[in-house]
């Protein structure tokens, strides 16, 4: 009996271990809706297999935690959708920018979307959604799909460094965000700046650094690339500044590139057209700092001087009035008492003493004074 019980337990454990991945995959599949609008999830054409990109170093760095793939159909047309889920929106933004290219244009379907070649790439929270055959659907349909995904996605704010890039002369599709060495090297490769991979170990991504790169038009058929690196504190930025300067000075292939610091932000113009062009590009970086000092707040302010003068006059008149009233009251009581009780309360002869010099022999009577 015990042997059969052990065998049953073993089979149950094996079944649970086999069902575990399937249950996890089913849980992950909840991000893509079963239906949105008139579109219903279902199988696609048999001659077009499911496409899921393999984990690259950058995707591992970004923390890709799951993928979903499905077809949607409205009984007449169909679209193909791939959703990739990442650890957080920063990781998803790194992969989203890595998928951009100059062949894709910003889309009006939703913020942080790019379209081209009948394909749409969208960043939705911590998910990157790729949709093929978008010509079969309207912008309203695509927005319904992205809104449905957004309801269950992580809505943590995106990294602030993305907003520091200048807008003027920006070549759309060249923006690249990197939160680690793998994403940074991939970004350099996409911009044909592989030689600057020598500075990758010196950036210090382990300290919380985040990098943003983009290409800018600097003349007819000419461009230069801007790299900005954001650090948690100015102290870390200053330390990394010296590390990067040593690498730039020691490698002739990197000649012309200089690094500058502004509080906690480092900026480099990779392969600049000229020193003037590099300086102009740096000046357009949208990064402002403000130093604040927390002090106890108060709402009291000095009153107008006319009000102060008025208060002085009123206070003086009140004080004088009180003095007059008190003087009259004290004097009146004393005079009245002396009239009613002469020599009984005030100025009693037995209590009055007069100092005499003795120049005459006649003694002074105190009563002669009253």
Task: Describe, in plain words, how this protein is organized in 3D.
Among the domains are: 131 residues; 124 residues, no CATH class. The relative contact order is 0.07. It has 370 residues and is α+β, with helices and mostly antiparallel strands. It starts with a helix and ends in a 30-residue tail after the last helix. Helix content is 36%, strand content 20%. It is elongated, with a radius of gyration of 43 Å.
Strand content: 15-25%
Based on the structure, what is the oligomeric state of the protein chains? single chain
Distance between the termini: 134 Å
Content-based structural category: alpha+beta
Comma- or semicolon-separated keywords:
alpha+beta, 370 residues, single chain
Please give the structural blueprint.
Layout: H1 2-28, E1 35-36, E2 39-42, H2 57-62, E3 64-73, E4 78-86, H3 89-99, E5 105-106, E6 113-116, E7 119-124, E8 127-132, H4 139-151, E9 176-178, H5 181-190, H6 200-203, E10 210-219, E11 222-230, H7 234-250, E12 259-262, E13 265-270, H8 275-283, H9 305-340
Antiparallel strand pairs: 1-2, 2-3, 3-4, 4-8, 5-6, 6-7, 7-8, 9-10, 10-11, 11-13, 12-13
């Amino acid at each position: 009996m015990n042997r059969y019980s052990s065998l049953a337990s073993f089979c149950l454990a094996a079944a649970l271990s086999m069902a575990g991945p399937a249950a996890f995959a089913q849980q992950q599949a909840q991000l893509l809706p079963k239906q949105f609008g008139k579109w219903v999830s279902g199988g696609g054409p048999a001659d077009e297999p499911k496409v899921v990109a393999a984990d690259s170093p950058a995707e591992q760095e970004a923390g890709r935690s799951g993928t979903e793939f499905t077809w949607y159909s409205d009984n007449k047309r169909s679209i193909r959708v791939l959703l990739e889920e990442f650890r957080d929106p920063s990781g998803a933004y790194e992969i989203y920018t890595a998928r951009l290219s100059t062949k894709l244009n910003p889309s009006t379907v939703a913020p942080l979307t790019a379209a081209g070649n009948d394909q749409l790439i969208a960043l939705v929270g911590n998910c990157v959604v790729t949709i093929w055959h978008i010509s079969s659907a309207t912008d309203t349909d695509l927005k319904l799909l992205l809104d449905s995904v957004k309801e269950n996605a992580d809505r943590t704010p995106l990294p602030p460094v993305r907003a520091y890039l200048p807008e003027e002369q920006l070549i759309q599709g060249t923006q690249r965000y990197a939160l680690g060495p793998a994403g940074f090297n991939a970004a350099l490769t996409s911009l044909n700046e592989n030689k600057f991979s020598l500075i990758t170990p010196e950036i210090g991504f382990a300290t919380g650094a985040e990098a943003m790169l983009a290409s800018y038009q600097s003349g007819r058929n000419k461009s230069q690339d801007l790299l900005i690196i954001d650090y948690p504190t100015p102290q870390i930025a200053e330390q990394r500044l010296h590390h990067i300067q040593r690498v730039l000075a020691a490698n002739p292939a990197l000649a012309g590139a200089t690094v500058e610091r502004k509080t906690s932000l480092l900026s480099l113009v990779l392969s600049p057209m000229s020193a003037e062009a590099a300086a102009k590009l740096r000046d357009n970086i949208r990064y402002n700092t403000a130093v604040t000092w927390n002090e106890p707040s108060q709402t009291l302010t000095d009153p107008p001087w006319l009000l102060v003068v008025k208060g002085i006059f009123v206070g003086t008149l009140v004080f004088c009035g009180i003095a007059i009233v008190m003087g009259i009251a004290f004097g009146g009581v004393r005079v009245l008492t002396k009239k009613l009780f002469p020599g009984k309360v005030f100025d009693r002869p037995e209590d009055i003493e007069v100092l005499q010099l003795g120049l005459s022999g006649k003694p002074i009577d105190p009563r002669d004074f009253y």
